[in-house]
Design goal:
Length: about 300
């Protein structure tokens, strides 16, 4: 089948247009440094990139959650350590008050010191974070963990024992708080016993009932101190978990960034060679087209 001059010119013109479009696309890729400008450029790679981007977004949220939870746990740990120190100081005073050589006046003086430590312990339990939320009130962060009722002369837990959880990894939930009930008991037993003992040492320091109160408070104090130390240890374990998760998330993020780069970044050297090749093709086609446009049958006769 013979190809007419018009068909030859159309073919050459089409090749020139396709080459020019390819050059324009390559120049756009070179300008952005990205191989994929549109999903249609590489549908499979584009789908993988979308999955990677979604995973990266999740990792960023996990990292934010890890940072927030770690900060909150650190604050709680600080107050718990202060509580443990206060409990230790209270224990020293109780042992001193339990000494038979103390007079009634001595025990009354000890009671005054115990009262100050009682208030310090309450302040640690009712500590707030930087946003004004109570740390140890469970999910009732707008309420103090412990409240003193002056009418009944006793403490009550006004927070709850619920634990807040945060997602810090794919399907990984971690407790973001501890509660006053975790360390002080459901009925604020230590605080109530300590408050009653302070009153007893002030009003009836030599009464046998006061001596029994002192022994009971010492037992409760030791149990609470052990509970506080266990909770501090638990918080340390959670911090270790957060550190491991943060490192793991960072490794996954780096791997994703590498894959993303391999899929989307342009091979600059190869792209430049392709541009040059297409330009040469366009120039050659232009020369052929130019010669064909000036030729006629009379030139061959």
């Amino acid at each position: 089948m013979r190809i007419s001059d018009a068909q030859s010119r159309a073919m050459i013109h089409g090749n020139m247009n396709r080459s020019a479009e390819a050059v324009a696309k390559l120049q756009s890729q070179i300008g952005t440094g990205l191989r994929i400008q549109l999903p249609s450029d590489d549908p499979i790679a584009s789908a993988r990139l979308l999955r990677i981007q979604r995973e990266q977004s999740s990792l960023e949220q996990y990292d934010k959650n890890i940072g927030k939870v770690s900060g909150n746990l650190s604050i709680q740990e600080t107050h718990l350590k202060s509580s443990a120190d206060a409990v230790g100081s209270i224990r020293d005073l109780l042992l001193w008050a339990n000494t038979d050589s103390n007079s009634g006046e001595d025990r009354s003086a000890i009671a005054s010191q115990l009262s100050g430590l009682e208030q310090s312990l309450v302040s640690f339990i009712n500590a707030k974070d930087e946003s004004g939320n109570y740390l140890f009130s469970g999910t009732r962060t707008d309420k103090p963990a412990v409240t003193f009722d002056s009418t009944s002369g006793s403490y009550a837990m006004t927070g709850n024992d619920r634990h807040r959880q945060a997602e810090v990894g794919n399907g990984v939930l971690l407790g973001a708080n501890v509660t006053a009930k975790d360390v002080m008991g459901a009925n604020a037993d230590l605080l109530n016993q300590l408050h009653a003992l302070v009153d007893g040492l002030k009003t009836a320091p030599n009464d046998p009932a006061t001596h029994q109160q002192l022994k009971d408070t010492l037992e409760q104090l030791d149990a609470t101190h052990g509970s506080i130390l266990e909770t501090i240890t638990d918080l340390g374990g959670r911090q270790n978990t957060l550190t491991l998760l943060a490192n793991s998330n960072a490794d996954v993020s780096l791997a994703n960034q590498k894959v993303e780069g391999d899929l989307s970044h342009l091979d600059m050297g190869g792209a430049m060679l392709q541009v040059d090749a297409f330009k040469l093709s366009v120039e050659a086609s232009q020369k052929v087209y130019s010669r064909m446009s000036t030729m006629s049958l009379f030139d061959l006769m």
